[in-house]
Amino acid sequence: MAQPPKLKPASWLVAAGRPEETGSPLNTPLVPASNFLLEHPRAYARDDGTPTWEALEEIVGGLEAGKAVAFASGMAAVSAVFNQLRVGAVVVLPEDCYQGVVGLAMAGAEQGRWSVRRLAVEDTTGWIQACAEADLVWLESPSNPLLAVADLEAICSAPRKPGTIVAVDNTFATPLNQQPLEFGATVSIQSATKFIGGHSDLLAGVATTRDQTFWQALRKSRELTGATPGTLEAFLATRGARTLALRLERAQANAAYLAQRLEAHPLVARVRYPGLPSHPTHAVAKRVLKGFGAVLSFELKGGAERADAVCRHTQLIRHATSLGGVESTMERRAGIPGQEHLPPSLLRLSVGIEDAEDLWADLEAALRKAAG
Ligand SMILES: *Cc1c(COP(=O)(O)O)cnc(C)c1O
Questions:
Q1: In angstroms, what is the span from residue 284 Cα to ligand 1's centroid?
Q2: Span 86-113, average pLDDT
């Protein structure tokens, strides 16, 4: 398949990761294999991959003009990056960061494997400094769940200590809205569970890099930890990726609409969406993001109880965790163990591809009922 610079991302998503041989099925099939007939370079799946995994890797890797490694989950991809650290390494994490990544980093710190520093997502000067000092600079932007946007353009191109890994969790933006490798990051991470898969029916992760040595190290980590993707999951993630451009376009148009409507609602205290001019990092977002994404957070007047009531009263918007599916989902994040530091009434809304007016009608009715 031609390399992506020749094709726009929406075409690449449809065209890549397909067999080329005459008579092959149009789609790369499910190949449920642990081992392959010798003498062939592909011997054992955990070491050498499978055609089904490689279809997903070609699609996602190509979007960032890099080489990808598919994993069992987003956290398996994250772990493969942390596995590259030597004992005593310095890790810098954002203050607002996916809780699984924080959990992994803190567990390693407790075991004495590395030390962890935290920085505000917006602290560009601090991050640039971190690139010169730390061993792993871990960025997540837009961040989960506060939707802060980091100046990845400035940070990923900053001078580094030799060997420093600059990793970007690009799950919220997807490679369609943000290109961390283009800015100079070592590795870009996707929880393919979210927008890539897009249907809330699988767990998978992908790490993409332009550094051949780092790619080999990620492959080695997958081989030795056994963090291999499931065959069905890789197939479904590939199927989901075909429509990513279409889904994201619709979902982020819906999100922008809901963000505006929510901001004008008397019960809403604050809306966080990078596309809103009121967003603290809107100016950076306009520069680094091609689109503002399909996740927003909002806080209610009336605290946690009213926020819980809103979640109970929506019907079209499902009360569920996670994000990036065709269906809109919402939850109160501070209600989750370990997330109590968040504003108590903050609701994170992952906007799906439903009709925007139906979504707003659902939300408005739930707000009205919650107000009692
Ligand atoms: C979900 C998520 C992950 C973890 O992905 P899993 O597929 O659940 O392991 C990592 N980072 C972000 C930003 C996420 O939203």
A1: 23
A2: 98
**Sign of the four-CA dihedral 63, 67, 72, 73:** negative
Residues recognised as catalytic: 46, 98, 169, 194
Task: Please check whether the domain covering 9-241 is classified as CATH 3.40.640.10.
Answer: yes
The tens digit of pLDDT for each residue in 101-126 reads: 999 999 999 999 999 999 999 999 99
Whether 3 has a pLDDT exceeding 90, the answer reads no
Strands 89-94 and 347-350: unpaired
Checking if the pLDDT of 332 tops 90, the result is yes
**Contact status, residue 272 vs residue 298, Cβ threshold 8 Å:** yes
Q: For ligand 1, which residues put their CB under 6 angstroms from it? A: 73-75, 98, 100, 140, 144, 169, 171-172, 191, 193-194, 203, 205
Specify the pTM: 0.97
Protein residue closest via CA to atom 11 of ligand 1: 98
Side chain identity at residue 59, one-letter code = I
What is the pLDDT averaged over residues 261-284? 97
User: What atom in ligand 1 is closest to the CA of residue 193?
Assistant: 7
Q: How far apart are CA 98 and CA 243, in angstroms?
A: 25
Spell out the domain ranges in the chain: 9-241, 245-370
Scan for tokens 């809109």, then name that residue: 328
Contacts of 102 (CB under 8 A, 6+ apart): 93
Mean pLDDT confidence for 176-191:
98
Closest CA to 143 of 159, 162, 166, 120: 120
Encoding tokens for residue 249? 């376009």
The token duo for 7 is 């094709």
Nearest C-alpha neighbor of 208 from the set 29, 100, 59, 25: 59
Q: Which atom of ligand 1 is nearest to the CA of 194?
A: 1
* Architecture category of domain 245-370 in CATH: Alpha-Beta Complex (3.90)
